[in-house]
Amino acid sequence: MDDCPFCAIIRGDADAWIVHETPTALAFFATGPAAEYHTLVVPKCHHADLFAIPSDEWLGVSAAVKDVADLYRERLGIENVEVLNHSGEHAQQDVFHLHVHILPRREGDGQDTSWTDHPEIEKRFDALLAALKA
């Protein structure tokens, strides 16, 4: 897509600090990073989100995520990472080209990606599962 910032990086029309590349995925440092080595992994073909990407292409993206995490562990000794994807406006997706964040974590880093537990939902598990199987 012409107006997609990640497609511009993939085409070589925009600057990026490339960490890792495969035939189907590209990993680069995130601008406005939340931590050192905060990295985005994107498919080279434009797909808006997790729902839009074919499963075989998703496997290539997820393999690249693992490659980058392993690289950071082997070269930098990073032992803690958070892997995040936001798919959809209400999931806080801001660039509508599928991307996976790799966020190295360390004690006291000031990041908080916790959520609120809703244990009352457990009482509805049978109904939730039935809806999936209907």
TrEMBL record:
Q: Give every HIT domain span.
A: 5-112
- Which residues participate directly in catalysis? 99
Q: What GO molecular function annotations does the UniProt record carry, in alphabetical order?
A: catalytic activity
Name its GO BP terms in alphabetical order: nucleotide metabolic process
Any single Pfam family the record assigns to this protein: HIT
- Source taxon at top rank: Bacteria
Per the Swiss-Prot or TrEMBL annotation, the motif Histidine triad motif is positioned at: 97-101
What is the name of the protein in this document? Answer: HIT domain-containing protein
What organism is recorded for this protein? Rubricoccus marinus
